């Protein structure tokens, strides 16, 4: 039987693949309708903004490597700390360097969905 941490770890890896491929189907399924995410520039990102950035190709990842730091289960919510070494374009702005993310997954019926998070640029490439 898979633990919640293993399940979220697998979803995080699938999320990386979905972001690289602009997999709208995966993102629609796993981003909560009320998602709130703070981008490195301070902009608040909603589910619709995120999906629009992939549909319009304003989000393009050229390279990404994940370094998972922690996964904590708190009731039906899971907190993930992960750093990415990445390069590409986000909402038309170049991204390049190491970014630290906190992401919140919540169990919603049978699926986990991302309800919130934030990203901070730790270093430039």
From TrEMBL:
Residue ranges annotated for the DUF4440 domain, each copy included: 8-107
Domain of life: Bacteria
Database matches in InterPro entries: DUF4440 (IPR027843), NTF2-like_dom_sf (IPR032710)
Pfam families per record: DUF4440
Protein's name in the database: Nuclear transport factor 2 family protein
């Amino acid at each position: 039987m898979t633990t919640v941490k293993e399940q979220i770890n697998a979803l995080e890896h699938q999320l990386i693949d979905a972001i690289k491929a602009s997999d709208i189907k995966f993102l629609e399924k796993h981003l909560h309708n009320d998602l709130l995410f703070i981008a490195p520039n301070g902009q608040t990102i909603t589910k619709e903004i995120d999906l629009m950035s992939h549909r319009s190709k304003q989000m393009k990842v050229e390279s990404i490597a994940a370094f998972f730091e922690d996964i904590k289960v708190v009731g039906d919510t899971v907190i993930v700390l992960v750093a990415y070494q990445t390069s590409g374009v986000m909402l038309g702005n170049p991204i390049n360097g190491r970014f630290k993310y906190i992401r919140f997954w919540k169990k919603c019926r049978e699926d986990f969905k991302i309800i919130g998070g934030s990203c901070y640029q730790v270093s430039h490439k």
